[in-house]
Amino acid sequence: MTDSVETTELATAPKTTMEIGDILKILPHRYPFLLIDRVLELERMKRIVALKNVTITEPFFQGHFPDKPIMPGVLIVEAIAQAGGLLLLTEVPNRDEMLMVFTGIEKARFRRPVVPGDQLRIEVEVRAWRMTAARLEGKAYVNGKVAAESTVTCRLVPRMMRVGAAEPAAGDS
Question: Who's near 77: CB < 8 A, 6+ residues apart?
Fold first, then answer.
């Protein structure tokens, strides 16, 4: 009896790592805007460690900059937000009906350029969390050195919200 109880507990234990297929089931982002390739660690409601492999085939490198490709800092902050959103959305039972959207970016600092061939290690910690909003602190590392850091705030909103509206359309819930 003990073996079946242990097996059941293991089967229902939350994932602590994720591959791309798992990520695609949770985040709404798709190529070319999905900026998370893998999750190495996930501690429910506390922190996440994710990876982004930066390749020369990224579309933004065509114009930023043609002779010296550098990943735009705002996309590094977006990767931090996506990692945080992934962590938060794992706790939302009706996540197919919801979106996690940015509401603020604070204390963004860019320490070193991120270039093709780099692997971003994105570490995000929850600083405050209510079911509909959160404040997250994130750092992106390359080879163990901080490339960028930022505090981001986000909010959970219905997917059926009208474009440009602060609240759902009449009849939306």
Answer: 105, 108, 138, 148, 150, 152
